[in-house]
Amino acid sequence: MGDRNFRSILTGSFSTPCADNPTVAMVEAAYRHAGLDARYINCDVKAEHLAQAVAGAVAMEWVGFNCSLPHKVAVIEYLDEVADSARIIGAVNCVSIRDGRLVGDNTDGKGFLASLKGVTDPSGRKVVVLGAGGAARAIAVELGLAGAAHLTIVNRDVARAENVAALVRDNTPCAAEAMAWTGPVAVPEGADILINATSIGLGDGNALPPVNLDTLRSGLVVADVIPNPPMTHLLRTAKARGCTVLDGLGMLVNQGVIGVELWLGKKLDAGVMQRTLQEIFEVPA
Question: What residues bind shikimate, as annotated (predicted)?
Fold first, then answer.
């Protein structure tokens, strides 16, 4: 009896709303598979309560937590240190607590990059990114740091696209330009990778970003950050045209793997996480 430990390692997530976040199921399945007595607690934290939530995590000796909307920028003021890529991106979605010190990182772009490397190396490649929101910003920075040759950021508000392009140019060796999204986007002939980093298609298997489908060609890698449904309309169409496709499940899985490794120094089984999400989203085996 004296050697038994009834105290679980505590991790979790702060966001609002939070009820539709499947990360808790994915991470806890991997904890169980690894034989870890650890919990991932999905917390609905309103913006006005973020400071108390962070202080509570420290007080209860959590080892780390994720931050999702609307906390990715606001949490920075409560941190003792911010990793370089998160500082460039200007947002934090993963916080590690080490000896009472809070260290912020951003695993959005890292998770996508890890997934992308499963199908192609972005080094030296020309990439078109649809969107200029938080996901696009994180992905663009990580692609630049990973050695991509050129990024084209496409957005309806071209000023927001230029902000992301400037961020890449100023902080990485990668060239980057903005393009106004005024109609169906024609993927340039020399592009190697097309990424939908918008929310178009989330929860709607028929929604399709305005893309000139005739410019989707064999050899092009087409990726989507949407995890549900994983096989979006864009990906189904691209696959039918001979493109290599990459769904959003891998990004979500790799975010979990990277986050837990930051917290615990252990690499969890990505396959367990992937299968858990596939069951949740009813993806055929």
Answer: 68, 93, 108, 255
Neighbours of 82 (CB within 10 A): 21
Q: Which residues pair with 223 in a beta bridge?
A: 195, 246
Alpha-carbon distance values, 88 to 40, 141, 213 (Å) = 28, 8, 33
Proportion of the chain in helix, strand, coil states, percent, rounded to 5: 40, 20, 40
Cα 50 to chain center, whole Å?
21
pTM of the model: 0.93
| 214-270: pLDDT as tens digits | 999 999 999 999 999 999 999 999 999 999 999 999 999 999 999 999 999 999 999
Place of tokens 């009820």: 19
The answer to whether 65 and 38 have CB atoms below 8 angstroms apart is no
Which one of 46, 72, 117, 267 is the catalytic residue?
72
- Give 77: exposed, middle or buried? Use CB within 10 Å, 0-12, 13-18, 19+: exposed
Binding site as annotated, residues:
68, 84, 93, 108, 131-135, 225, 248, 255
Tokens of 230: 């994983």
CA distance 157 to 61: 43
User: Helix crossing, 249-264 with 270-280: angle to 10°?
Assistant: 140
Q: Which domains does the chain have, with CATH numbers?
A: 9-106+251-280 (3.40.50.10860), 110-247 (3.40.50.720)
Which residues lie across from 155 on neighbouring strands?
Answer: 180
Cα 179 to Cα 27, 171, 186: the distances in Å are 38, 20, 11
In the block, which residue shows the tokens 């990580």?
142
Alpha helices per DSSP H over 10-118: 23-34, 50-59, 84-89, 108-116
Query: Which residues line the annotated binding site for shikimate?
Result: 68, 93, 108, 255
pLDDT tens per residue, range 33-70: 999 999 999 999 999 999 999 999 999 999 999 999 99
Token pair 């309560």 is at which residue? 49
